[in-house]
C-alpha cells in the first residue's frame, strides 16, 4: 500500500476503532470519490454501514466486494465482520474458500477457511480443507484437524446413520497414515481411542491402552482415563477393572468413588452380566466374592474412620446389591449398617441424602430404625442440632400413609416450628451473609403445611407455610432454598409479584437463568398484566434470553481458540506445551456439546413462546408483529431441544409414599417439549394465516443463514401438513383447559384458512412492493399487511380468476369452547380451587379471544368484505366476537370483585385466623403474621384487579 | 465422592453451587476462560453424579515487577449439604499441586470476606494461609477483604 493511500485509510480505521461509524462512512466516501474501485474502502464502508444498521446499503456494497473475489488480508478481515453482522456466515466460508483457491500455498488463508467452516459447523468441508492443508504443508497437526473434523461430522445430528461408520473408518485410516503415532500427545491418543470406541473395536483399543505409553497417558490424563474405563466396561473386562480398583483402594488409598463402583460391578459381574437365572455354583462363587469385597470395604472404613465416608457407603451399596440379586443376606444387615453410618456421620449435612437409597424399610425393621432415630434427638450444640435435623428428615422420609393424617401432620408442623425457633439460638451472632443452622427445620415446616394442604384442600395451610418461611427467610437472607419454597407457594396463592421478588433476591444470573428461570417464567403469560402495559414478565423473558445471544458468539470464538491452541501446542515454548498439552480435542467436543445444550435449550424457546403470548396481548396485531414473530417461531420449530431446567434444586423432604414437594406445588404440569411443539404450531398457524409473507417471499427477503435442517423424517413433510398434525406427546403435555384450547385453534384455522389464502396478495405483488420500499430492512416485516388492514388494499390485490370460497358457518367447536371455559370458570369460583387454577382458565380464554382477533383482522375492512362478498362471514365473526366478549367481560367483573374482597381487613383477618396454628406456638406474634397476610392479600388483589382490567381492555381493543 | 478436573460442561452444575455461596458471580465467559487457559487448575467434587463443590483457579496474569509467578484462587465453593467433609481442603490441595508442578507457582493468593469466619478458619488454620493485606471495600456490597497467601515452595519439583 502506498504511503499516500495509507494516510487516507488510517482515519477510516481510527473512526471504526472508536465506533465513530458515521465519520467512518464520510472518510470512506472521500476516498471513494477519487478511487471508486477501491475494494478495501468499500469493505470498510460496508462495515460502518452495518454497524449503523443500514443493512440494505451495506448489503449492496458487500456483494460488490465479494464479486471481486478478494484475497487481501485487510479486505477479508473487514468482510468477515460485515458478513457476521449480516448473519451471513456461509458467505464467509465461500469468501475464504475462493481466496484460498487462488493462493493454495498461503497457509494463513487455509487456516482461515478451516476456521470459517468450524464456525458454522460445516465439518465435511472443514475436513476437506484440513486434508488439503496436510498434503500441502506436511504437518501432522493438519492431519489431526482433518481426522477430528471427520469424527465431528460423524457425531453431527444431520449426518445420516449409515454414513457415520464410513467417516469413522476414514478417520482411523488417516491416523495410521500419520508420521508419528497417536500417543505422541494425550489429545491425539484420546481421538484415537474415541474412534476405536465408536467403531466398537474394543480389542484394538485395549492393545493401545495396555501398551506402556498408553498406561502412562491414562495415569496423567483424565479424559483418556475416563474413556479407558468406558472401553473396558464395554469390552466386558469388568473383573480386571475390579482387581485394579481393589489395589488402588487398599494400597494407594484411592478414595475415588469410581474405584468403589468398579469393584462393586466386578463383584456381581457373573450374575449381572447375563439375563439367565444363575446356577447354584455361580451364586456360591459370587457369595464368596461378596465376602472378599466386604473385607476390602470394611478395611477402608476402619482405616479412614471419620476422615472419609466412602468405605461405609460402599458397604451399604454392597448389601443393597446383594439383596437385589436375591442372594442371602441377613434381614437386619442394611439397617445395622445404616445405624452405624448414622452414628459416624449423622452430624454431617449430607447424611440424609447419603442414606436415602438404602432406607426402604418395612415392618419390624422400620420400627427398630425409627426407635433408633428417636433416641438420637438432642439440641445441645450446633453439631447435635445438625444430627437432629437429620433425625427429623429421616423419620419423615419413612412415614406411612396411615401416619399422614391431618391431625398428626399438624402436630408435626408444630413440633418442627418449636425446634426451629429453639435452634435459632445457635445462629444469633452470625453475620448476614451466613445461613442459620436451623434453616432446615423451617423448610420441614413448609413441607408439613404443604402436605396438610394436599390432605385437606384448605388454602389456610399454604398461608401458614408462607408466614413461617417468610419468618425464616428474614433470618437467613442467603437461604435460596427457603426462597424456592416461597416462590412455589406464592404462585399457588395467586401472589406472583411476591414470588418474583424472591426470585430476584436469589440473584439468578448467567447460566443459572437457563436452569432456573422456569421458576417464574413457566406459563408466565397467565400472570402477566401485559394488556395493561405492564411488561414486567416480558422484560424478564428478554433479560433471561440474553445469555443465549452472547453465548453463541462467545463459544464460537472459544472454539476457534481451541483449534489455534492445538496449533501452537507443538511449536511454541515448553511452558505453553506443558500448559496446554492436555485435553484439547476433548474440550472441543465439550464446547460443541455445551453450545448445543444452550442454543437448543427448551427453556429458551419456552420463554420465547411466553414472550409471544404476552406480546400479542400487549401490542396491536399488525404486520410488524405478525411477520417478525412468524419468521422467528419458524426458526425455532425444527430444533431438537435439551431440557436444562433444574427441578432437583427444590428441596424435598416429603415422605417416600408422597409425591415430592416440587410435584405437589406445581400449579400445572411443567411445560415440556410436547407443550412447546403444540404452542409453536398454534402460533405459527395463526401468524401464517394472518401474514402476507408466504415462503417464496420470505426466502427472497430474509438474509442470513437458516438453521441446519435436522434428520428427523417427520421434519421432511411440508410445513403446512406438519402444522395441523396433532401428536400424542403434545396432548399429554397440555392441561385440560389447554387441550380444549388446542382443539379450538385447530378448528378456527381450518375454518378461516381458505379465506385467508384467497385474499392474500400474490408473492409477485409483495416483492414488487418490497423492492420499491427503500428503507426496508432485510429480516424485517413487510408493510403490506398494514396496508391491507387499513383499507387501501387495492395495491397488490390482483383480480382472482376463481370464485371466492363459499362462506361456511363457524364450526360448532368455536362457540362451544367459550361456553366450556365459562362453565369451568363458574365451577372453580364456587369451589375451593386455588387462584392459580382460576387464572389459568381466564388466561386461556383471553388467549383464545386474541387468536380469534388475529385470525380475523384481515377481514375487518369494509372494502375487503365488499370486494369478496364476505358479508355473511363478517356476520359470523361478529356474532362470535360478541359472544366471547361478553364472557370475558363477565370474567373480568367477577375477578375484580374477588380482588376487592381479598384485600379488605376482613380478608386479612381470615388469613391471620387461618394461620392461627402457627401463632399458638410462641415466637410468631400477631403483627408478623398480619404483615405477611397483608403482603399476600395485596399481591393477590393486585393480580386479580390487573387481570380483570386487562381482560376488559383486550375486549375493548379488539371489538 | 470423586474429585476431578473441571470440564466445560460442568458449568451448569457448578453454577448451582453459587446460589448462596457467592453473591458476586462471574460471567460465563470468565468461567470458560479459566477452563480454557488453565484447564489443570480447576476441579469439581462430584457426589452421585451431582457437582457439590468446585475450585476455580488461575495463574496471575499481570505480574508486577519482581513478583514471582503465582496462582490465584478465583472462587471455591462447597454446597452446604456437603460441608465439613474436608472437601474444600481436598479441592484446594489438588489445585495447589497443579499450580506448583505445572506452572511452577511460588505461592497462591486469594481474597476472603472479613465476615466469612468459616472460610477464614479453613484458610488460616487448616491450610496455613497468612493474611498479607486488607483490601478496603473489595466486594460489591462494600465489605472489606483479606488478601491471603500461602507459599508453594515445598511442592516444587
UniProtKB/TrEMBL annotation, chain A:
<dbReference type="InterPro" id="IPR011990">
    <property type="entry name" value="TPR-like_helical_dom_sf"/>
</dbReference>
<dbReference type="InterPro" id="IPR019183">
    <property type="entry name" value="NAA25_NatB_aux_su"/>
</dbReference>
<comment type="similarity">
    <text>Belongs to the MDM20/NAA25 family.</text>
</comment>
<dbReference type="Pfam" id="PF09797">
    <property type="entry name" value="NatB_MDM20"/>
</dbReference>
<feature type="region of interest" description="Disordered">
    <location>
        <begin position="778"/>
        <end position="809"/>
    </location>
</feature>
<protein>
    <recommendedName>
        <fullName>Actin cytoskeleton organization protein</fullName>
    </recommendedName>
</protein>
<feature type="compositionally biased region" description="Basic and acidic residues">
    <location>
        <begin position="798"/>
        <end position="809"/>
    </location>
</feature>
TrEMBL record, chain B:
<feature type="domain" description="N-acetyltransferase">
    <location>
        <begin position="1"/>
        <end position="153"/>
    </location>
</feature>
<keyword id="KW-0808">Transferase</keyword>
<dbReference type="InterPro" id="IPR045047">
    <property type="entry name" value="Ard1-like"/>
</dbReference>
<comment type="similarity">
    <text>Belongs to the acetyltransferase family. ARD1 subfamily.</text>
</comment>
<dbReference type="InterPro" id="IPR016181">
    <property type="entry name" value="Acyl_CoA_acyltransferase"/>
</dbReference>
<dbReference type="Pfam" id="PF00583">
    <property type="entry name" value="Acetyltransf_1"/>
</dbReference>
<keyword id="KW-0012">Acyltransferase</keyword>
<dbReference type="InterPro" id="IPR000182">
    <property type="entry name" value="GNAT_dom"/>
</dbReference>
<protein>
    <recommendedName>
        <fullName>N-acetyltransferase domain-containing protein</fullName>
    </recommendedName>
</protein>
Amino acid at each position: 500500500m502506498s504511503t499516500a493511500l495509507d494516510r487516507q485509510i488510517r482515519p477510516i480505521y481510527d473512526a471504526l476503532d472508536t465506533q465513530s461509524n458515521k465519520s467512518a462512512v464520510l472518510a470512506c466516501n472521500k476516498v471513494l470519490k477519487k478511487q471508486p474501485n477501491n475494494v478495501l474502502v468499500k469493505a470498510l464502508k460496508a462495515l460502518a454501514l452495518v454497524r449503523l444498521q443500514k443493512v440494505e446499503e451495506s448489503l449492496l456494497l458487500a456483494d460488490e466486494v465479494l464479486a471481486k473475489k478478494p484475497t487481501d488480508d485487510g479486505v477479508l478481515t473487514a468482510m468477515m465482520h460485515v458478513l457476521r453482522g449480516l448473519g451471513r456466515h456461509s458467505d464467509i466460508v465461500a469468501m475464504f474458500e475462493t481466496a484460498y483457491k487462488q493462493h493454495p500455498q498461503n497457509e494463513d488463508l487455509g487456516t482461515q477457511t478451516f476456521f470459517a467452516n468450524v464456525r458454522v459447523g460445516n465439518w465435511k468441508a472443514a475436513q476437506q480443507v484440513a486434508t488439503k492443508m496436510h498434503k500441502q504443508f506436511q504437518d501432522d497437526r493438519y492431519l489431526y484437524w482433518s481426522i477430528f473434523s471427520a469424527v465431528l461430522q460423524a457425531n453431527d445430528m444431520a449426518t445420516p446413520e449409515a454414513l457415520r461408520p464410513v467417516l469413522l473408518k476414514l478417520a482411523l485410516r488417516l491416523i495410521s497414515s500419520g508420521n508419528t503415532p497417536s500417543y505422541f500427545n494425550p489429545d491425539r491418543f484420546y481421538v484415537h481411542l474415541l474412534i476405536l470406541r465408536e467403531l466398537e473395536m474394543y480389542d484394538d483399543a485395549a492393545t493401545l491402552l495396555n501398551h506402556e505409553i498408553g498406561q502412562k497417558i491414562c495415569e496423567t490424563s483424565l479424559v483418556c482415563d475416563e474413556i479407558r474405563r468406558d472401553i473396558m466396561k464395554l469390552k466386558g473386562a469388568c473383573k480386571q477393572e475390579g482387581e485394579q480398583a481393589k489395589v488402588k483402594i487398599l494400597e494407594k488409598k484411592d478414595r475415588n468413588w469410581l474405584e468403589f463402583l468398579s469393584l462393586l460391578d466386578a463383584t456381581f459381574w457373573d450374575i449381572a452380566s447375563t439375563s439367565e437365572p444363575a446356577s447354584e455354583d455361580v451364586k456360591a462363587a459370587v457369595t464368596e466374592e461378596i465376602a472378599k469385597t466386604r473385607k476390602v470395604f470394611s478395611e477402608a472404613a476402619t482405616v479412614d474412620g471419620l476422615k472419609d465416608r466412602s468405605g461405609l457407603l460402599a458397604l451399604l451399596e454392597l448389601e443393597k446389591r446383594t439383596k437385589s440379586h436375591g442372594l442371602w443376606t441377613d434381614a437386619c444387615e442394611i439397617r445395622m449398617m445404616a445405624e452405624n453410618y448414622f452414628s459416624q456421620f449423622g452430624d454431617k449435612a449430607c447424611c440424609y441424602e447419603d442414606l436415602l437409597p438404602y432406607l426402604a424399610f418395612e415392618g419390624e425393621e422400620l420400627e427398630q430404625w425409627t426407635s433408633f432415630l428417636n433416641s438420637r434427638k438432642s439440641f445441645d450444640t450446633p453439631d447435635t442440632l445438625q444430627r437432629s435435623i437429620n433425625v427429623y428428615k429421616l423419620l419423615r422420609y419413612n412415614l406411612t400413609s396411615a401416619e399422614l393424617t391431618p391431625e398428626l401432620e399438624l402436630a408435626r408442623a408444630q413440633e418442627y416450628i418449636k425446634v426451629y425457633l429453639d435452634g435459632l439460638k445457635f445462629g444469633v451472632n452470625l453475620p448476614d451473609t451466613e445461613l442459620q443452622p436451623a434453616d432446615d427445620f423451617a423448610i420441614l415446616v413448609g413441607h408439613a403445611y404443604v402436605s396438610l394442604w394436599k390432605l385437606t384442600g384448605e388454602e389456610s395451610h399454604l398461608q401458614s407455610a408462607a408466614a413461617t418461611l417468610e419468618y425464616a427467610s428474614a433470618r437467613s437472607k442467603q437461604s435460596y432454598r427457603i426462597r424456592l419454597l416461597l416462590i412455589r407457594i406464592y404462585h399457588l396463592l395467586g401472589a406472583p409479584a411476591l414470588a418474583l421478588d424472591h426470585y430476584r433476591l436469589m440473584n439468578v444470573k448467567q447460566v443459572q437463568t437457563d436452569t432456573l428461570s422456569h421458576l417464574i417464567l413457566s406459563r408466565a403469560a397467565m400472570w402477566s398484566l401485559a394488556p395493561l402495559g405492564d411488561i414486567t414478565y416480558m422484560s424478564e423473558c428478554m433479560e433471561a434470553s440474553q445469555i443465549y445471544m452472547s453465548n453463541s458468539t462467545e463459544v464460537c470464538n472459544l472454539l476457534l481458540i481451541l483449534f489455534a491452541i492445538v496449533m501452537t501446542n507443538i511449536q511454541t515454548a515448553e511452558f505453553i506445551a506443558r500448559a496446554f498439552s492436555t485435553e484439547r480435542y476433548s474440550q472441543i467436543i465439550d464446547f460443541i456439546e455445551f453450545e448445543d445444550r444452550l442454543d437448543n435449550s427448551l427453556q429458551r424457546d419456552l420463554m420465547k413462546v411466553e414472550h409471544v403470548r404476552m406480546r400479542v396481548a400487549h401490542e396491536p396485531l399488525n404486520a410488524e408483529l405478525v411477520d417478525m414473530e412468524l419468521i422467528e417461531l419458524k426458526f425455532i420449530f425444527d430444533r431438537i431441544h435439551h431440557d436444562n431446567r433444574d427441578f432437583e434444586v427444590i428441596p424435598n423432604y416429603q415422605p417416600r409414599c408422597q409425591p415430592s414437594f416440587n410435584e405437589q406445588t406445581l400449579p400445572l404440569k411443567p411445560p415440556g417439549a410436547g407443550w412447546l411443539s403444540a404452542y409453536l404450531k398454534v402460533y405459527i398457524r395463526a401468524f401464517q394465516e394472518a401474514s402476507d409473507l408466504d415462503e417464496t417471499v420470505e426466502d427472497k427477503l430474509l438474509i442470513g443463514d437458516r438453521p441446519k435442517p435436522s434428520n428427523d423424517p417427520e421434519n421432511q413433510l411440508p410445513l403446512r401438513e406438519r402444522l395441523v398434525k396433532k401428536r400424542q406427546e403434545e396432548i399429554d403435555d397440555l392441561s385440560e383447559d389447554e387441550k380444549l384450547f388446542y382443539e379450538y385453534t385447530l378448528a378456527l384455522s381450518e375454518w378461516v384458512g381458505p379465506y385467508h389464502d384467497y385474499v392474500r396478495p400474490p408473492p409477485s405483488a409483495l416483492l414488487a412492493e418490497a423492492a420499491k420500499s427503500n428503507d426496508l430492512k432485510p429480516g424485517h416485516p413487510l408493510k403490506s399487511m398494514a396496508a391491507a388492514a387499513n383499507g387501501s388494499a387495492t395495491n397488490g390485490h390482483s383480480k382472482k380468476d376463481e370464485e371466492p370460497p363459499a362462506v361456511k358457518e363457524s364450526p360448532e367447536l368455536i362457540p362451544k369452547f367459550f361456553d366450556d371455559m365459562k362453565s369451568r370458570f363458574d365451577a372453580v369460583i364456587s369451589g375451593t380451587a386455588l387462584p392459580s387454577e382460576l387464572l389459568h382458565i381466564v388466561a386461556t380464554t383471553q388467549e383464545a379471544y386474541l387468536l380469534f382477533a388475529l385470525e380475523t383482522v384481515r377481514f375487518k375492512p369494509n372494502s375487503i368484505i365488499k370486494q369478496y362478498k364476505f358479508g355473511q362471514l363478517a356476520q359470523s365473526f361478529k356474532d362470535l366476537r360478541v359472544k366471547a366478549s361478553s364472557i370475558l367481560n363477565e370474567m373480568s367483573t367477577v375477578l375484580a370483585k374477588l380482588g376487592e374482597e381479598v384485600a379488605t381487613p376482613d380478608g386479612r383477618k381470615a388469613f391471620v385466623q387461618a394461620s392461627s396454628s402457627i401463632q399458638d406456638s410462641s415466637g410468631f406474634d400477631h403483627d408478623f403474621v398480619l404483615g405477611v397476610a397483608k403482603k399476600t392479600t395485596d399481591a393477590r388483589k393486585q393480580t386479580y384487579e390487573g387481570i380483570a382490567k386487562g381482560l376488559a381492555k383486550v375486549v375493548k381493543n379488539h371489538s | 465422592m470423586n474429585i476431578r478436573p473441571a470440564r466445560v460442561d460442568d458449568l451448569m452444575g457448578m453454577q448451582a453451587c453459587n446460589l448462596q455461596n457467592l453473591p458476586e458471580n462471574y460471567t460465563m465467559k470468565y468461567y470458560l476462560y479459566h477452563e480454557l487457559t488453565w484447564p489443570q487448575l480447576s476441579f469439581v467434587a462430584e457426589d452421585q453424579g451431582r457437582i457439590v463443590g468446585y475450585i476455580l483457579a488461575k495463574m496471575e496474569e499481570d505480574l508486577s515487577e519482581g513478583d514471582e509467578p503465582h496462582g490465584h484462587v478465583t472462587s471455591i465453593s462447597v454446597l452446604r449439604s456437603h460441608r465439613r467433609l474436608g472437601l474444600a481442603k481436598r479441592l484446594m490441595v489438588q489445585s495447589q499441586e497443579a499450580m506448583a508442578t505445572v506452572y511452577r507457582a511460588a505461592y497462591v493468593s486469594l481474597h476472603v470476606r472479613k465476615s466469612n469466619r468459616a472460610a477464614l478458619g479453613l484458610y488460616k488454620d487448616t491450610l496455613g494461609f497468612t493474611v498479607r493485606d486488607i483490601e478496603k471495600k473489595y466486594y460489591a456490597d462494600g465489605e472489606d477483604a483479606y488478601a491471603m497467601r500461602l507459599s508453594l515452595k515445598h511442592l516444587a519439583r
